[in-house]
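Table 4 source record.
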Amino acid sequence: MATTILSGRSLTLTIATIQYAEQILDSAINFDTERLTFDTLAGKAYKYIDSNVTLDINFLNDSGKTSPGSLYKALWDATESAPDTALAFVLTLTTGVSLTGTVLPQYPGISASGADAQTCSVSLQVVGIPTEDLTSA
């Protein structure tokens, strides 16, 4: 079976029904699993406790645009008005495989250096574990 190589341009990210592809430089869903390890007389034993999941996004600073086209403004407004209200997200590959879930909004950070484009970064807390849909794979 041939290997299919997917690039970053093979995905789209939708947050709160708005698709943000033009300004996103990269995004990642990261899992940090908490697991206990016990040394028993029979060897090691493991106990899964919990997973902390984040949706990390780096994007071009679009703070001058108005919502809903501005990811910066959408995150800022959502954090300011309802910081504990989850926003739906869908991360979709062009193959149709997707991860869906909800994230809690957070103020995005801004960075700049010299002649480089200004960028923003944010690490959004995912509520629970994203749902994986492989039906189109």
